Amino acid sequence: MNTVEMLDELQNKALHDEKLKNRFLETKKEEDALGAFCRVCRELGYDIYPMDVIQAGDEFYAAMKRSTNGGGENSPKLEGEDDLYEMFFASMEQMEEMDMESTLKDLKERRSIRAYKPEQIKEEELQKILEAGTYAPTGMGMQSPKIVVVQDKETRDYLSELNAKYLGSDSDPFYGAPTVLVVLASRARPTCVEDGSLVMGNLMNAAYAAGVGSCWIHRAREVFDSEEGKALLKKWGIEGDYIGVGHCILGYPADGAVPQAKPRKDDYIVYVR
């Protein structure tokens, strides 16, 4: 990799690693900021020295001038546009803003899906969704919830039957979704329901971001308070007093299964300023 490619890779890593990002930001406080920055790069296995950054910046600026319509050698130099060190941070800030816009877009566009294709979701999608669930906030950070991944069809169908019994219906409450994430939480924590609910929210929002449909299916409490539900917990090796919070169903939406959002009510937000 050349210097620009190495800086791009480091920038991407810093965007997804708060500690690494802060290490880079700390270098801006040093008297020799560029030297300190390069030392961090080398500690991370990237053979970058100050002259490499300066030279790459000059080459980048020259290439940019040549490619700009009406540019050429007489194009005025904007402050910092040949400084890859400063551009590293400016670009990172811009990408963070874009990430925030993308996150807000996902939060606004996620919908509950109630019709699914039969095909199973990809393992990498599942793991990303589960990881997001484990990072939901919980009371005092005690992580009272537990997520049970059900993809075995026999178990999935049995859960559906138990849920339908409390719904008073013969239909599939899981709408044909091939994956069911059962969210439980320890009753030993006073915030168990709130903790589990936050996990459910993370799972559903992450599912949308991963291109997977989801929906919160209720009656987990009734199912896992029942003798049949307790027997399932024992079979799964889950010990302790757990409350069922929700079923997060996952799958690919069937054609036409994505609804439009309802208008937000006028008095949703009340300001006390």
Q: What key attributes describe this structure?
A:
single chain, 273 residues, elongated, 4 strands
Count the strands? 4
How is the main sheet built?
A: 4 strands, antiparallel
**What's the SSE pattern?**
HHHHHHEHEHEHHE
**Range of strand content:** 5-15%
* CATH superfamily label of the largest domain: NADH Oxidase
| CATH class category name of the largest domain | Alpha Beta
Radius of gyration: 25 Å
Number of domains: 2
CATH architecture title of the largest domain: 3-Layer(aba) Sandwich
Low-confidence stretches: 70-82
Q: So what's the oligomer here?
A: single chain
Classification by helices and strands: alpha+beta
Any overview of this molecule?
- With 273 residues, this protein is α+β, with helices and mostly antiparallel strands.
- The protein folds into two domains: 3-108, no CATH class; 123-251, NADH Oxidase (3-Layer(aba) Sandwich), CATH 3.40.109.
- Helices cover 50% and strands 11% of the residues.
- A four-stranded antiparallel beta sheet has the order 1-2-4-3.
- Helix 1 (3-15) crosses helix 2.
- It is elongated and about 70 Å long.
- The termini are far apart.
